[in-house]
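Long-time lurker. I teach an intro course on protein structure, and each term I like to show students one example going from raw sequence to a predicted 3D structure in token notation. This year I'd like something fresh instead of my usual example. Would anyone be willing to generate the tokens for the chain below so I can use it in lecture? Attribution to the forum is fine with me.
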Amino acid sequence: MGRPRTNDDAVKERLVECATEMLATRPRESLTVRAVAAAAEASTTAVYSLFGGKDGLIGAVRDRAVAGLFQDLSEVRTSADPLADLYALAVAYRRWGRGHSHLYTVLFGGVQSFDPSGEAGAGDPVRPLLAAIDRALAASVLVGDATSIALSIWATLHGLVTLELAGALDGATAEAAFRSAIRATLRGWATPAVFRSLRQAEPAHWG
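-- Reply from a regular --
Happy to contribute to a lecture. Here you go:
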């Protein structure tokens, strides 16, 4: 009878954390079973028994990133104001990226590709953002193609978060850039009547 494995969870966690850091900070080809096992102070056998190999380990990292971002965005409460909801979702997206910089880099650095076209799957990490866009379109708050709106908002968010994580923006500059860029992006897709109202009462609307 084999010896019971009592610390699989601890080993699994170390392997995922080490693989995440390596994927975020090194060329992807440098992540080998031997390298990640050594970094996690585990055996190569553990990688195969827990994940089935390198691809399974990379998949586990990707799944953690997807689940983390999806959970944080899903926790944003839906209100009667779709634009306020979109802004709140942008805030949550940035907060998650700043708090999980390695997972963010892995998620949008090649392991997980973002495709806003087509039907959003249950595991799409930005599905709450897409749902808010649909609500805004249905309420005639935004006008345009949902895919184009999603891509423009995500491109703005991704650019801002990436610059901030890279240290290209100091705290005050990053905060000001985030507020102005997200507001401008949402205004750009607003219907004419909503656009005018936003220009007149923007501070109160965005909070």
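Some talking points for your students: Residues 54-74 form the longest helix (21 residues). The chain is about 70% helix and 0% strand.
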